[in-house]
Amino acid sequence: MPPSRRIGVFLFAGAEELDWAGPWEVLAAWSRIWPDDGVETLTVGRDKAPLTCAKGLQVVPAHDWVDAGPLDLLIYPGGRGVRAHLDDQAVLDWVRGLARAGTVLASVCTGSWVLARAGLLDGRPATSHWSGLDRLAELGRDIEVRREARFVDDGDILSAAGVSAGIDMALHLVARLGSVERAREVRRYIQYDPAPPV
After folding, report:
1. How far is 81 from 64, CA to CA, in rounded Å?
2. Which of 3, 39, 43 is nearest to 20 (CA)?
3. pTM for this prediction
4. Which of 46, 68, 142, 154 fits 63 for a cystine, CB–CB 3.0-4.6 Å?
5. Is 168 helix (H, G, I), strand (E, B) or coil?
6. What is the DSSP letter of 109?
7. Is residue 114 assigned to a domain?
8. Looking at the domain assignment, is residue 137 inside a domain?
9. Please, what is the Cα angle at 65 between 30 and 46, to 5 degrees?
10. Which of 39, 44, 42, 40 is closest to 10 using CA atoms?
11. In the predicted model, what is the mean pLDDT of residues 161-178?
12. What are the backbone dihedrals phi and psi of residue 51, each rounded to the nearest 5 degrees, phi first?
């Protein structure tokens, strides 16, 4: 049975590793352990060249913007690499095109900066990493910055505050696109039981 939902996780140079790998773990576990749910999770890059993430992890996207095909959902991570995207017209046009095509956009950390710069958060609620909230407000018009939110679901656009919030948002997406019970099963499967020791 072909997948009924296609989820892309965007990879780029300087992306914060857990901003994308956390949601990837949640969503890929869902698609691989419960294939009858009809979910496909794939990595997407501007091209398929190897790239180095923020903390030095080297990765290779499985698909590029062209051959990834239509996406129902895109995870856009943050990290120092986001800064180069703010004035990259090709990136901004790509995310605008995805939004026009009906792709749900879900950012983690400073990934929301790119959505704001693309004009997609104007007049809408959103969040970001605690250190980037003021910058988020500057990148669009009348953005309702939710400073205390772990993640914000505004229908076709979601934003998460940071690493662990990105995992929470991904589990929320499993519940939203699948069911609460499936989200609980995924959480248990990956043994996501936050209990920080400090």
Report:
1. 17
2. 43
3. 0.96
4. 68
5. helix
6. T
7. no
8. no
9. 100
10. 44
11. 97
12. -140, 160
Q: Is 109 a catalytic residue?
A: yes
> Residue 163's pLDDT is what?
94
Domain that holds residue 34: 5-107+163-188
Catalytic residue from among 39, 75, 109, 186: 109
Query: Is 1's pLDDT higher than 80?
Result: no
CB contact at 8 A, 79 and 59: no
| Cα–Cα dist 18/167, whole Å | 9
Count the domains in the chain: 1
Q: Give the pLDDT score at 110.
A: 98
Residue written as token pair 């229908």 = 155
Tokens 């017209």, located at residue = 89
Please give the angle made by the CA atoms of 15, 101 and 162, to the nearest 5 degrees: 30
For range 51-59, the mean pLDDT: 98
User: What is the CATH classification number for the domain harbouring 82?
Assistant: 3.40.50.880
Does 126 map to a domain?
Answer: no
Q: Does residue 25 lie in a domain region?
A: yes
- Cα–Cα separations (whole angstroms), residue 113 to 1, 122, 128, 158, 173: 37, 12, 8, 12, 21
Average pLDDT over residues 74-89: 98
pLDDT of residue 4: 82
Write out the two tokens for 159.
């934003």
